[in-house]
Amino acid sequence: MRKRVVILRIHKYDKDLIKEKISQALYKYFSIDSIKKEDNILLKPNLLMPVNPYLAITTHPTIIEAVGCIFKERGNSVFVADCPGGFLNKNDLNYVYKETGVFDISLKNDFKLLYPESFFTKNNLPLCWWVNQFKMINIPKLKTHSLTTLSLATKNLYGCIYGDFKSFFHLKLPKPKDFIKIIIDLYKNIKPFLNIVDGILGLEGNGPARGGRPKNLGLIFIGDDPLYTDYAISKFFKIKDRFNPLIKAAKEMGLIFEKDLEIISDLKDINVNLKLPSVHILNYFPNSLISFLKSFLKFYPKIDNGKCRFCFKCKNYCPKNAIYVKENGELGINLKKCIMCMCCIESCKFGAINLDRGFILKIIGRL
């Protein structure tokens, strides 16, 4: 069965325009009429951290609102949920909802916000209670990721894992090729009926958080399968499979095939570039050379104690207990323990932790 991905060209966060364009695509190319009025719709955005949506780290609330209104007008009840790492209790998650603009659009349109109050286990995956209770629409952000190269529809399913189990998986599977296996397991066990990727304003460079740079891309991708949606995006930006560990692994496992992908687009002669994380260059190097250049290629999280508010969220969330309090009261990171999962970066709401890259990677980052 062929998997369909539609590419839309939309340059601004105009709710009515986005709603019109997405609605037209859904009725023309997808089985939206199979959704019954009694079906409860769950919108699953990427709400990685409590930041302004124009930093392009989180799904823009205008897209969430536009998609929700399409189904609200069909008579469906609409819910919104995510479970970002380090923001498990209701007060913390409310702070995320408010800072990302999701709280306001939910209040305005009578969308109900959900919280990760409990979990269930499916094939050894600890999933938030809301995962299998609704018709899910996956609404990720189009952005880069220093661990997985890209963070799109399939990676957004990681936000369905309950609470601190995320850091457990980072601890258990610190290498990208191993971590990708969890993402693929999520793909096999969670089936959103739609995937709508917010690429109007994307994030390039050293994403997925404050290390990246917002870029006007003017794109929305809609697909009926998260993995094939990611594949279409990777092809759109001309990213070779060897530089996209998810697509590479999925092909090796026989989960995606070129012949099964149908891309629908009116875009002609468009060339949009996306700068990848500087660490993706490591894929060019043979293992022997990487070993020789190891000290130059290293990259680690670094705490800016001038920005730190000493809430200790990063310390409590670190799966390796690598963050400690120095004698002067400042926070430090034990680099011998650090596994570069970036949980600390993603959990810091003050932007006080960023990547400190080695000499060669700093040069690459300027290219």
Structure, described:
This protein has 367 residues and is an alpha/beta fold. It has two domains: 3-265, Rossmann fold (3-Layer(aba) Sandwich); 285-365, 2-Layer Sandwich (Alpha-Beta Plaits). The chain has helices at residues 15-29, 61-72, 90-99, 102-109, 165-172, 176-189, 226-236, 245-252, 287-292, 294-297, 313-317, 343-347, 359-365; strands at 3-9, 40-45, 77-80, 112-113, 119-122, 125-128, 135-139, 141-145, 149-151, 194-205, 212-223, 261-265, 299-303, 323-325, 331-333, 353-357. Strands 1, 2, 3, 4, 7, 8, 9, 10, 11 and 12 form a ten-stranded mixed sheet that branches. It has a two-stranded antiparallel ribbon with strand order 5-6. The longest helix is centred in the first third of the chain and has 15 residues, at 15-29. It is globular. The mean pLDDT is 90.
Query: CATH superfamily assignment of the largest domain?
Result: LarA, N-terminal domain
DSSP, total strands: 16
Mean pLDDT: 90
Distance between the termini: 42 Å
- Helix-residue proportion: 25-40%
Number of helices: 13
Assembly state here?
Answer: single chain
CATH-defined architecture of the largest domain: 3-Layer(aba) Sandwich
